[in-house]
C-alpha cells in the first residue's frame, strides 16, 4: 500500500498521536522549515478531561472532539495519515504502520497514556474505562441498560446489584465521575425510573491511598471528600481493590460490594511502541528522555507528554501525567527542532506548574493555584471557564456552554440515550442457558486494526465480482512516498 507522502527538500518530522502534546507541536511547527506528518488511529482530537460528561449523559461526544484535518486546514507543511503505528524501525529511520512504512528525519512519540490495571486480570475483564470516546459511550449505554434491566428484577438484591456503582480511583477522574453519577441519582434517575427505589442505590468511591486527589493540597482533598459525602457518595480510603468475582468487588480487609457497574479510574501507564531499545523504556511503559525530550539511546527520536519519563533532581519520578506538561514540552520541542537542524544547542525543559483543579458537582469544585487555593462556587466557575476555553474550536465552546447552561437551569442531563447498546459476556450462573448478543450491540473486546477485513459470522459472504480494470496512474517512485529527503544532523 502506498502512503503517498510527497517528497520534499525539507526535513520530515513524523508525529505519532494527536493528543494535547501532538496537537500543540504540530500547531507550533506551522512556520518551521520542516515537513510535518501526523499519524493517528483516530481522525479527531479528543478532549479527555470532559469524557466523564459524555459517559454520564451531560455532553454529546461531538462537543469534545475536533476533526484533525479541519484543525490544520491551511497549514501548508502539514500532512495527516489515518494510521496505526505498529513498530519503530530506528535503523532504517522508518515507522511500520498498517498502511505501510513511513520514513522520517525526526520522530516524535506523543501517544499519551493507557489505563493501568496493575496486572489484575479479573478487574481488567470486568471494569469499564473512561479513556476514549467509544469507551465513554459504552459506559453511558451500560449504566442505563442496567437500570432498564433492574425494572425486570424480582428481588431487592438483584435490583441493587444493577443499580449500584463502584468507582475505583480517587484522582480527578474518579472524583468527577462519582459526583456526576450522584447528581444523576439525585435529580434525573428518579424521574425516569419512578418504579425503582433509588434510596437503595449506592455509589462507592474506593481509593487505595490515604487521601483523595493525591497531588493537590490537603484542603482541596478534604473539601472534595466532604462534597462527595454530602452528595451521598460512600468514600473508602486505604482500601486497595483486590478482585471482581461473582458480581462483587472485593477490597480492603475482606470487604465486598455487590455491583454490576465497576468503573476503573485508578491509574495510567505509558504507551511505549515496539522497536525501542530496552533501556529506553521504563517499567511503567513510559519512555526515558533527557531534558530536551530526546529518547535515551537515539539521536533523532523524541517523546513528549504522558508517554515521556524525564527524571531530574526535582522530578525523580518524572513529571505528572497531565495536559500542561505535554503542552509545555511540545512548545519547547517546536523551538528546539529548528535549533537541532541548525546544529545549535537545544534548550532544557523546565515545567511551569500552573496549578490543578477538579469539580465534584454543581457549584462544587476545588482549585489549587501556585499562590493560593479556593473551593466552592467560585472554584466551580473557574473550572468551567478553563475547560470551556481549552476545547478545540469555537463551535464546541458555544455548544458546550449552552448545554451547561441548560443543564444548570433544568437540573436535567437530556442525553440519556442507549444509541449503541453495549454487550458483554454475562456472568454464568448455575442452570443458566447461554445468552447470545442480539446483533446490534457494541462488543466488549477491543476492535481489530483497521487494516484487517473482518466478516462477522452473522453476515452473508459477499459475492465475487470480476476484477476492475486498473485505470490509476503509474505508482509513484518510492522516494516520493517515504524516503527520507534530509539526513539528520549530529546532535550538539
Summarize the helices and strands and which ones pair or pack.
Blueprint: E1 12-16, H1 20-28, E2 35-40, E3 44-46, H2 51-55, E4 65-67, H3 68-71, E5 78-82, E6 85-89, E7 94-97, E8 100-103, E9 106-109, E10 113-115, H4 121-126, H5 133-150, H6 156-163, E11 165-168, H7 172-192, E12 203-206, H8 218-230, E13 233-236, E14 241-245, E15 248-251, E16 255-258, E17 261-264, E18 268-270, E19 287-288, E20 301-303, E21 308-309, H9 323-341, E22 356-361, E23 364-368, E24 373-375, H10 377-390, H11 394-410
Parallel strand pairs: 1-2, 1-9, 2-5, 9-20, 11-12, 11-17, 12-13, 19-21
Antiparallel strand pairs: 3-4, 6-7, 7-8, 10-18, 14-15, 15-16, 22-23, 23-24
Helix pairs in contact: 1-9, 5-6
GO molecular function: oxidoreductase activity
InterPro entries: FAD/NAD-bd_sf (IPR036188), FAD/NAD-binding_dom (IPR023753), NDH-2 (IPR045024), NDH2-like_C (IPR054585)
Domain FAD/NAD(P)-binding: 12-330
Describe this structure in words.
It is a single chain. Helix content is 27%, strand content 19%. With 492 residues, the protein is α/β, with parallel strands linked by helices. Among the domains are: 12-41 and 83-115 and 269-353, 3-Layer(bba) Sandwich (FAD/NAD(P)-binding domain), CATH 3.50.50; 121-266, FAD/NAD(P)-binding domain, CATH 3.50.50. Helix 1 packs parallel to helix 9 and helix 5 runs antiparallel to helix 6. The longest helix has 21 residues, at 172-192. It starts with 11 loop residues before the first strand and ends in an 82-residue tail after the last helix. The model is unreliable at 444-465 (pLDDT under 50).
Amino acid at each position: 500500500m502506498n502512503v503517498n507522502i510527497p517528497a520534499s527538500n525539507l526535513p520530515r518530522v513524523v508525529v505519532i498521536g494527536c493528543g494535547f502534546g501532538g496537537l500543540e507541536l504540530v500547531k507550533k511547527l506551522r512556520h518551521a522549515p520542516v515537513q510535518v506528518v501526523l499519524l493517528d488511529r483516530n481522525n479527531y482530537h479528543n478532549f479527555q478531561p470532559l469524557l466523564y460528561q459524555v459517559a454520564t449523559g451531560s455532553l454529546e461526544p461531538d462537543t469534545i472532539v475536533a476533526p484533525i484535518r479541519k484543525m490544520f486546514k491551511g497549514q501548508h507543511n502539514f500532512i495527516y495519515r489515518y494510521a496505526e503505528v505498529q513498530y519503530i524501525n530506528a535503523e532504517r529511520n522508518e515507522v511500520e504502520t498498517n498502511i505501510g512504512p513511513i520514513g522520517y528525519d525526526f520522530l516524535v512519540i506523543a501517544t499519551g497514556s493507557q489505563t493501568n490495571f496493575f496486572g489484575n486480570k479479573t478487574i481488567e475483564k470486568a471494569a469499564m474505562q473512561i479513556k476514549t470516546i467509544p469507551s465513554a459511550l459504552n459506559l453511558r449505554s451500560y449504566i442505563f441498560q442496567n437500570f432498564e434491566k433492574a425494572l425486570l428484577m424480582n428481588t431487592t438484591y438483584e435490583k441493587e446489584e444493577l443499580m449500584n456503582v463502584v468507582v475505583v480511583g480517587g484522582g480527578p477522574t474518579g472524583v468527577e465521575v462519582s459526583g456526576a453519577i450522584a447528581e444523576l441519582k439525585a435529580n434525573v434517575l428518579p424521574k425516569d425510573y419512578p418504579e425503582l427505589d433509588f434510596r437503595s442505590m449506592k455509589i462507592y468511591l474506593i481509593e487505595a491511598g490515604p487521601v483523595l486527589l493525591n497531588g493537590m493540597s490537603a484542603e482541596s482533598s478534604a473539601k472534595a471528600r466532604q462534597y462527595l459525602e454530602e452528595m451521598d457518595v460512600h468514600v473508602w480510603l486505604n482500601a486497595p481493590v483486590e478482585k471482581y468475582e461473582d458480581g462483587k468487588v472485593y477490597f480492603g480487609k475482606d470487604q465486598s460490594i455487590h455491583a454490576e457497574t465497576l468503573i476503573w479510574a485508578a491509574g495510567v501507564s505509558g504507551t511505549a511502541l515496539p522497536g525501542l531499545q530496552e533501556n529506553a523504556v521504563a517499567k511503567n511503559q513510559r519512555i526515558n528522555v533527557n531534558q530536551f525530550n530526546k529518547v535515551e539511546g537515539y539521536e533523532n527520536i523524541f517523546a513528549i507528554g504522558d508517554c515521556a519519563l524525564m527524571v531530574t533532581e526535582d522530578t525523580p519520578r518524572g513529571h505528572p501525567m497531565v495536559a500542561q506538561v505535554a503542552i509545555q514540552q511540545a512548545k519547547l520541542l517546536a523551538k528546539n527542532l529548528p535549533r537541532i537542524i541548525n546544529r545549535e544547542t537545544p534548550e532544557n525543559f523546565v515545567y511551569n506548574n500552573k496549578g490543578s483543579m477538579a469539580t465534584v458537582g454543581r457549584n462544587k469544585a476545588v482549585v489549587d493555584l501556585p499562590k493560593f487555593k479556593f473551593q466552592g462556587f467560585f472554584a466551580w466557575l473557574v473550572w468551567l471557564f478553563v475547560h470551556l476555553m481549552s476545547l478545540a474550536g469555537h463551535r464546541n465552546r458555544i455548544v458546550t456552554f449552552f448545554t451547561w447552561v441548560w443543564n444548570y437551569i433544568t437540573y436535567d442531563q437530556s442525553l440519556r440515550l442507549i444509541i449503541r447498546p453495549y454487550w458483554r459476556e454475562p456472568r454464568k450462573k448455575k442452570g443458566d442457558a447461554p445468552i447470545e448478543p442480539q446483533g446490534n450491540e457494541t462488543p466488549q473486546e477491543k476492535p481489530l486494526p483497521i487494516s484487517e477485513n473482518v466478516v462477522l459470522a452473522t453476515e452473508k459472504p459477499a459475492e465475487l465480482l470480476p476484477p476492475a480494470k486498473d485505470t490509476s496512474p503509474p505508482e509513484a517512485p518510492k522516494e516520493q512516498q517515504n524516503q527520507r529527503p534530509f539526513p539528520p544532523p549530529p546532535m550538539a
